Amino acid sequence: MRPQETRGARFASPRFRFWRPDFGLGIAAILLLGTFALSGCTTTSEPPKYTGPVERVVVKKSQRKLQLVGGGQVMREYRVALGGSPVGHKYREGDQRTPEGSYVLNWRNPSSNFHKAIHISYPSERDRHVSRQLGYSPGGMIMIHGMPNYIRSESMRRQYVGRDWTQGCIAVQNHEMDEIWRMVRDGTPIEIIP
């Protein structure tokens, strides 16, 4: 047999028929395309951390807006839900009002029943004094928080958007709360205006 016939006969045998050069290139192309296709499916659990200074938080109740302010400008703005009776200052526990005035974001709860929560230092000494004069308890535990944890479906979550539903807290969507959580430090002043 001539050398050319031997080489051709080897690739024609059943044992070697799948190892032709064109077959190997096809497999490599499929693997490469699959890798690129799957790389777009990966996600990270946390967006990049924010390193800039949020100097204060401003809540405009009548506009239903929460603003993160730094360097003299609004850095982020979120639509918020307030207490079920949002007009006016909070004077007593259970009135479903969101307080108005200057406070501090002083501690946080990563295991809140409302995704995550950052506490607002209400009531101030002045709030306590006014409430006592009126014969009421001022209440407390006013927070900026996310959506209730028991809401699992997107259709239920949409029912909360665009309406006031809290007991006096300031609520945002969970992904917004995650961003606020990262950007705002404990001790940041918050001003809540009518």
Write the layout of secondary structure elements.
Elements: H1 3-12, H2 21-39, E1 56-60, E2 65-70, E3 73-79, E4 101-109, E5 117-120, H3 125-134, E6 143-145, H4 154-160, E7 170-171, H5 174-183, E8 188-193
Fold and architecture overview:
This protein has 194 residues and is an alpha+beta fold. It folds into two domains: 3-39; 56-193, L,D-transpeptidase catalytic domain-like. The protein has five helices and eight strands, in the order H-H-E-E-E-E-E-H-E-H-E-H-E. The chain has helices at residues 3-12, 21-39, 125-134, 154-160, 174-183; strands at 56-60, 65-70, 73-79, 101-109, 117-120, 143-145, 170-171, 188-193. Strands 3-2-1-8-4-5-6-7 form an eight-stranded mixed sheet, with helices on one face. The radius of gyration is 30 Å and the shape is globular.
